[in-house]
Amino acid sequence: MKVILRNPKREVQVAGGRRVKDVLRELEIIPETVLVIRGDTLVTADQMVTDDDTIELRPVMSGGSASRDAPRRGPPRARRAVK
């Protein structure tokens, strides 16, 4: 089976006929850190893959920073009185 990895981009060959989570374990990839895609379909860790399959592993991205113009969350800060 062909596995296409992103970040950095590379391709590896591994044996199919097993669950996705077993393929990820062999590649030392934590399942929660990637999306597994076969064709145009997301594949779960418990689904089987075959020797004829090609799967792509895309890293899960999250986060970002708040804009300075975005409203603040939480209670407003107390201000000191100016004398």
What does this structure look like?
- The protein has 83 residues and is mainly beta.
- The protein has a domain at 2-59: Roll (Ubiquitin-like (UB roll)), CATH 3.10.20.30.
- Helices cover 8% and strands 31% of the residues.
- It contains one helix and seven strands, in the order βββαββββ.
- β1 (2-5) and β2 form a beta hairpin.
Tell me the overall shape.
rod-shaped
Largest β-sheet summary: 5 strands, mixed
Amino- and carboxy-terminal Cα gap: 73 Å
From the 3D coordinates, which CATH architecture of the domain at 2-59 would you assign?
Roll
Estimate what percentage of residues fall within beta strands: 25-35%
Give the % helix: under 10%
Mean pLDDT: 87
Instruction: Write down the CATH topology of the domain at 2-59.
Output: Ubiquitin-like (UB roll)
Q: What is the string of helix and strand elements? A: EEEHEEEE
What is the structural class?
A: mainly beta
CATH superfamily of the domain at 2-59: Beta-grasp domain
In the CATH scheme, the class of the domain at 2-59 would be Alpha Beta
- Order the strands across the largest sheet as they lie in space: 2-1-7-4-5
How many strand segments? Answer: 7
Provide a count of the helices: 1
- Poorly predicted runs are none
Over the alpha carbons, how many angstroms does the gyration radius reach? Answer: 21 Å
Question: Could you name the key traits of this structure?
Answer:
83 residues, mainly beta, 1 helix
